[in-house]
Amino acid sequence: MIKLENVTKILGERRILDGVNLEVRRGETLFVVGPSGTGKSVTLKHMIRLMTPDEGRVVVDGEVVSEAAGKDLERIRDKFGVLFQGGALLEWLNVAENVALPLREKTKLSEDEIDAKVMEKLTMVGLEKDMVKYPSEISGGMRKRVGLARAIVMDPQIILYDEPTSGLDPVSSRMIDRLIDHLKNELGVTSVVVTHDLHSALSIGTRIAMLTGGKIVELATPGDFVKSQVDEVQQFLESQFITVRGEWEKKGL
Amino acid sequence: MLLLFEAILCMRHLFKRRNRVEVLRQMFTGGIKSLAVITVVASFTGMILALQTGIEMRRFGQEVYIGAAVMVSMLREMGPFMTGLILAASVGSSIAAQMGTMVVSEEIAALELMSINPVRFLVMPRLVAMAIMTPFLSFYSCIMGVVGGGIVGMTQLNVPWSAYIDNATRFADNKDLFVGMLKAFLFGIIIVIIACHQGFATTQGAVGVGNATRRTVILSFLTILIVGYMITRFFYV
User: Fold this and answer.
1) Could you tell me the residue ranges of all domains in chain A?
2) Quick check: A50 and B18 CB within 8 A?
3) Domain covering A1-79+192-253, topology
4) Could you give the 3-state DSSP secondary structure of residue B139?
C-alpha cells in the first residue's frame, strides 16, 4: 500500500534517512520505533509529501507521492488522516469546529450532516461532552483525541500517528492504543505509528520496524521483535523494560 | 510578491460565506481593536504638530494657519505613516507570531494535509481585512490629529476653533486625501504580506517565532518608509 524505496534524506550535513526501504501492507498497524533523532517523523512526513526525498521515492497505491503535485497530490493525501504530535489543532476554533474543518472546507455536506458526523467521531474518542471547549482549555491527551477525531472525520484509508502517546499518562496512552486498535479492527484502517512507546507497539502492532542511524535495522512481528538478535533492538528493548524485568528477577520477584 | 499574487488569486473564494465572516473577524481583530492606540497616537501627533508649527508661526503672527499645516501634514504623510507603523508593530507582529507558531506546532502542515490552502485560509482574509481597514484607520487618525491640533490651537495659541477648521479645510484638497488613502492601502498590504511571509518561513521553535516577529516589524517599517517616500515623490514632485 505504501512503499518507501531507497529513500534518502539529508538535512544540513546530516543524513537523516539513508536508503530506507519499507513497505506498509493494507490493513496492518505498522509501528516505527527507535531512539530520538533517527528520522522516524521524517519517514512519516515523506509518506504524505510534507518532505520529499533527496534520493529514492515513495509510492502509495502505485502512485509516486514524491513526484505528485496539484490535484494528484490532493487526491493521494485524501487517503490519509494524520495525528500530529501535539494534535495541531487550530487554537481559535473549538473542539467541534476543529473536527468539522475538513468537512466544511472539502465537502458540500449540510451543517446538520456535518454536526452528525462530528458528534459520531467525537463520541468515538470519548469527547462528545467537550465539543464547545477550546484547545487551550483541554489536556494534552484530549488534544490528541480531538486530533484523532479530525484525522478520521473524512474516513481515510490510512492513518499516520506521530508519537500518539508521548507526554501522556499511562491511562491516556492505553486509551489511545485502544482507539488505534479499534480503527484497525472495525474500520479496516491501515495505520503507521511512530513512537518510543514499546508497550503500545508490542500490544497492538501488526509489525514493528526499528529505525536507527537512518536505516531500518529490524522489521518483524511483535513476537519476533522481542527475540531479535540485532544489537540495536536488544539495546532498545533493554532500555525500555527488559532491564527492569532483569532487576525483578534478580530480586526474586 | 509570489505570496501576494497567490493571495490575490485566492480572492475568488471571497464569495463563500465563511470567508466573508473570516474577513469581518480579521477587520475587527486587526482594525477595530487598534482604534484606541491610534486615537491616542494620532491626537498627540496633531497636538505636537500644532504646537511646533504654531510656536514658530506666532513669531510672524500667522498662527491662525496651523489648521492648514496640521491638516495637510496629517492627510499626506502623518496619518497613513503613523497608522502604518502602529499596525506593523501591533497587527503585523501578531500575524507573524501566529503564523510562526502555527508552523512550529504543525498546524500549517495539518492544513496542507487536509488540502486546505494556507494562503486562502489564512493570508487572503487578513490581506482583504487590512486593505480595507488601514485606509479607514488612516482617515480616522487624520481626524483625530486635526482635532488634537485644534485643541492645542484653542488652548495654547488662542486660535479660534472656527478659524482653525476654516484654514484646515481651505488648504487641503482631494488629492491629499486620495494620496494618503492610497498610501494607507498599500501599507496595509505590505504589513500582511511581510508578516505572513516571515511567519511561514519560521524555523527553530520559539526562537524562530521571536525572530520572525522582529524581522516583520523591521522590514515593515523600512518598506513603509521607502514606499511612502516613492508615492510622495510620484504625486508631488
Assistant:
1) 1-79+192-253
2) no
3) Rossmann fold (3.40.50)
4) helix
